[in-house]
Amino acid sequence: MKENTLRIKTIILMLGLLGLIIVICCCEKGPTKPTLVTSEEVENIPFDRLQGKIYFRRFNPETPELYYFMALDAEKKTLTGLAQFDMYVPTNLALSPNGEHLLFSYYILKGITLTFAWQLYVMEINSLAIRNVAPSEFNDSYSAWSPGGDMISFWSNRDLKSAIWLTDFPEDSSRLLIEVAEIARTRCAWLPDGAQLVYSDTDSNQSAVLILLELETWDKQTILREDESSELIVYKHLSIAPDGKQIAFVKAYAGGYDELWIMNLESRETLRLTTGESDWHPVWSPDGSQIIFSRGYALYLIKADGTELERVTRGKGLDEFPTWGK
């Protein structure tokens, strides 16, 4: 009787260890190639207004366990499935300056702690190989490439502090850059010279602000302040124009809708591009004349002066987090 009990316990322990090994291995599971684009969808894309390559994430409610990276090529006039993720959630895509890598946040089960956390991953576009570029046991997200592609800025709650961090690429050298007030609201964007970046925060009055940071001198300058409390309005999804003269951002309202705005970094004049919808994650075209962004279940395009709003994608799923390169 005792031998049978011991044998059962041994089997249960072995099965538990096997399950643990499977979980840990799956944490690093890479993507595969999908096929899910119809010719009708491609025919309705306004290729005449597009340039270069656009990558974005697609989610289909009919298959909630699957996420896709899509590739839209304006020159070839094609839309293809680039990668399929069938384990965890990828989000916040950012194309490297050389167009060879996609940086994204990956909500995965960590192998050591067996807890879910946002981690920074890079996928090599040609091979689909992925790797964690700044491993930690904390949440790392909202990342952005430096103009030279040799550094990555990101938000993290490492050391139990809400802060913007930097790491070199491809080697990890994570280091704290500057502490910020609000955990889930901080975004940052680099200026083309690589010597400055803009980030969102709140001031002593708890008002939403955009701050320009000089990386060499650590000089900080508030370039935009919201009159309302940050409990009502926050700034999100910052994107600098290729010439460094304008910044696109989202003004998010507590009521549940998000507006797309741009600001001239020299004159500080602002222009509201959209209203009354939930518009987010704006990204500039390579020539700086247009902005692509997420709205509802699709990607939309708008000129930098707020005209010629047009729908770009018409898939069955949810298209979001676009990134645009040459």
Account of the 3D structure:
The protein has 326 residues and is mainly β. It has one domain: Neuraminidase, CATH 2.120.10. 9% of the residues lie in helices and 48% in strands. The protein has helices spanning 2-26, 39-43; strands spanning 53-59, 67-73, 78-85, 89-95, 101-109, 116-124, 130-132, 140-145, 151-156, 163-168, 175-179, 188-190, 196-202, 207-214, 220-229, 233-240, 246-253, 258-264, 270-272, 279-284, 290-295, 298-303, 310-311, 318-325. It has a four-stranded antiparallel sheet, with no helix packed on it. The protein has a four-stranded antiparallel sheet with strand order 4-5-6-7, with no helix packed on it. The longest helix is centred in the N-terminal third of the chain and has 25 residues, at 2-26.
Features:
single chain, 326 residues, mainly beta, Neuraminidase, four-stranded antiparallel sheet, 2 helices
Please summarize what this structure is:
Helices cover 9% and strands 48% of the residues. The chain has 326 residues and is mainly beta.
Per-chain topology:
Layout: H1 2-26, H2 39-43, E1 53-59, E2 67-73, E3 78-85, E4 89-95, E5 101-109, E6 116-124, E7 130-132, E8 140-145, E9 151-156, E10 163-168, E11 175-179, E12 188-190, E13 196-202, E14 207-214, E15 220-229, E16 233-240, E17 246-253, E18 258-264, E19 270-272, E20 279-284, E21 290-295, E22 298-303, E23 310-311, E24 318-325
Antiparallel strand pairs: 1-2, 1-24, 2-3, 4-5, 5-6, 6-7, 8-9, 9-10, 10-11, 12-13, 13-14, 14-15, 16-17, 17-18, 18-19, 20-21, 21-22, 22-23
